[in-house]
Each structure stands twice: as C-alpha cells, then as structure tokens.
Amino acid sequence: EEMLEIWEELSLGYTESRGHPKLIQEISGLYPGIPSSGPESPIVLAPQEGVFLAMQSLLQPGDRVVAMWPGYQSLYEVARSMGCKVDFWKPRLDEAGVPAHFDVKDLGELLLSGPAAKLVVVNFPHNPTGFLPSAAEFHEVVELCRSQGAYLFSDEMYRGLELSPNDRLPTAVEMYDRAVSLGGVSKGLSLPGLRIGWLASASRPFLDRVAELKDYTTICSAAPSEILAIIALRGRDAIFDMNRQIILGNLNALHSFFDDYPDRFAWQPPRAGTVCFPRLLGPAAEAGAAEYCERLREKHGILLLPSGTYEYDEPCFRLGYGRRNLKENLSLWRTALDAGSS
C-alpha cells in the first residue's frame, strides 16, 4: 500500500541526485556496516555510469590498473582511455582450451611484476566465463589489494544468480575499506530497462567525488525507475529464487546439448550468472568464432557473441542462458548442426 500510494502521487520532475531515500535504504541493507542515509550511503546511478564515474574519481593518467580479462569492456577501457597502464589478469585454460579458472596466484604474480597498482578490477560472478571464486579465494584477492594499498573495484552485477545461495560471496565493501561495489537491478532482478544501479563504498572522499561528477552526467535517476527498483529490492529473494530455477533448468538443457556434440564444442559449466564461454572445436574453430556466430545468426536467427568482441583470440563465444526460450533456441541450433549448416 505504501508503494502504491507513492506511485499514484509520483511526479516526473527531478529526483534526489544521490537517489530516492527509500531506495538508498533498501540498497544499504545489502551491505553490512554501510549507512542508509547521509554522505556515506550508496549513490544511485546507471550501472555503466557507475563504472565511468568510479574510474574518473579514483584514477589519474599513468596509474597502473589490473583488471580481469576477457570482460565487460568499460571495466578496463575507461581506465585505458584516461592514460592509465592496464594489465590483464587472464584465465587459465582447461585441457580443452576453455577459459576455466582465474587463479589468484596469477594475480599475485601480476601485481608484483610492476609498479604498485592503484586499482584492481574484478567481476564476480564473471562475465563471460561464469567463473566464481570460493570465499577463501576472494579473501586472498582482497588481501593482495590490501598489501599494495590498491583500491578494489568489484563489479557485482550478477550477484544473486549463484547456482547455490551458499556460494554467494560477501560484498567487497564488507571486507575492505578501499573497496567499491557496483550493484544494480539489471541482472539478478531482471530489470535492465530501469537503468538503476549503485556504488557502495566505505570511502567518504570517493563517494563525495562521485556525487560531484554525477552532476555532469545524468544528475539524477528517473522517478518511475526508482520506485520500481524499491519494489523489486523488497521482493528480491523471490525474484532470485525464480531466476535460479530458470537458469538451473537451462543449464540442464545445456549439459545435454554439449554432451551430444563433443566434437563440435568444449565448455566449462558456469558456477554463477547467466553466461558461459564455450569453445569451438574442429573446422569451426579453424574458421574462427566470428564467422561461426555470423553464419548462425544469418541462417538461423541464433545470436551468440564471438570472443573477438572481447579482443580475445581463442575461438570461444559467449552464450546467454538466462531466458525462458533457451530450450527452443537449442532445438533450432540442433537442427542446424544435424543438417550440417552450422
């Protein structure tokens, strides 16, 4: 009733620059120890805007940044466009050549191989591989950042989509006073059209700077989006459970699909999120992921994202499995494979 009354009285004027107070209150409940009001509370913004403003607030030309790769492009390209030196924490390949695991030892060696990093950028659950570290491994990542005095930017947009809730990691801001957590309603709550995300941090200077810079980007969020986001966050457990059932069912279908074509594809089942990063085998691999994905799109209307989109050379493709119509699309793909046209 409360939200219905607010919705019916809603004005389409400017909103609070840092976010609707009730929305901030819901967001802060996701982060133990983070205030629900005042200058140390989370800042509401569009998720992509959060990446951009965080980098602008933390970095200067010449700073060293270490980021996971392949990954969401802005997580490293914004820093690179600012004149920062960006080094990549790359996944190890399994025996079939599938990007399977980000080893924390590799991150440690990378951090020691050059000047002290100003910022480490991680994304768990990871896009595009579906990788999720253990809690112990994530703790090691945080301690590596602490040892260098580096900021940690943690893209947590897929948080809540773990295959088992027991695998859910703590947020970065719970673990480290120089961490920044990016969250939003786009992935786990299935509401990308609202364009509502947020930044949480224990660093007051960082939040102050983001708030200043936001006056030069969106200024504020859309009033209807904020109210709908409040409603979604209050019902988040039910939405997470619904989405988990969808992705678990779809993963069973993917297991059957890839088991039927072991000479065409290799894959590493994801631990979380709604994307995975299989590898092409045989002649398709030799032709390249871009050609394969384009042919599949043109002839059969099936959309996959080739690895070249990430500037990643291995013949892989990103496959999304978060939609209810996945099984229908797998059936079309099977028909194409069996007919030899894919």
TrEMBL record:
<dbReference type="InterPro" id="IPR004838">
    <property type="entry name" value="NHTrfase_class1_PyrdxlP-BS"/>
</dbReference>
<dbReference type="Pfam" id="PF00155">
    <property type="entry name" value="Aminotran_1_2"/>
</dbReference>
<comment type="similarity">
    <text>Belongs to the class-I pyridoxal-phosphate-dependent aminotransferase family.</text>
</comment>
<keyword id="KW-0663">Pyridoxal phosphate</keyword>
<dbReference type="GO" id="GO:0030170">
    <property type="term" value="F:pyridoxal phosphate binding"/>
</dbReference>
<dbReference type="InterPro" id="IPR004839">
    <property type="entry name" value="Aminotransferase_I/II_large"/>
</dbReference>
<dbReference type="GO" id="GO:0003824">
    <property type="term" value="F:catalytic activity"/>
</dbReference>
<protein>
    <recommendedName>
        <fullName>Aminotransferase class I/classII large domain-containing protein</fullName>
    </recommendedName>
</protein>
<dbReference type="InterPro" id="IPR015421">
    <property type="entry name" value="PyrdxlP-dep_Trfase_major"/>
</dbReference>
<dbReference type="InterPro" id="IPR015424">
    <property type="entry name" value="PyrdxlP-dep_Trfase"/>
</dbReference>
<dbReference type="InterPro" id="IPR015422">
    <property type="entry name" value="PyrdxlP-dep_Trfase_small"/>
</dbReference>
<feature type="domain" description="Aminotransferase class I/classII large">
    <location>
        <begin position="13"/>
        <end position="321"/>
    </location>
</feature>
